[in-house]
Amino acid sequence: MYTINLAYELQDTPFKVNAVCPGYTQTDFTNHHGTSTVAQAGERIVKYATIGSDGPTGKFFSEEYFPEPANCPW
Description:
The chain is mainly alpha-helical. It has helices spanning 2-9, 38-49; strands spanning 19-20, 60-61. It has one domain. The chain has a two-stranded parallel ribbon with strand order 1-2. The longest helix has 12 residues, at 38-49. 11% of the residues are buried.
């Protein structure tokens, strides 16, 4: 909900506000049992952190669980 509220507050600015799930990542936190590498998780985050001005805002993306179009319905 905070993502949607912040996106609404910033709708007249060039900022995009989205939530991104990196996926089940192979880290110490998951005892290295994840389905994605750290590099793959990082690519997902960078993709949406560098989204263009024509990109979406106020969305939740989870490419691992919702591959196309990756927009998870909330």
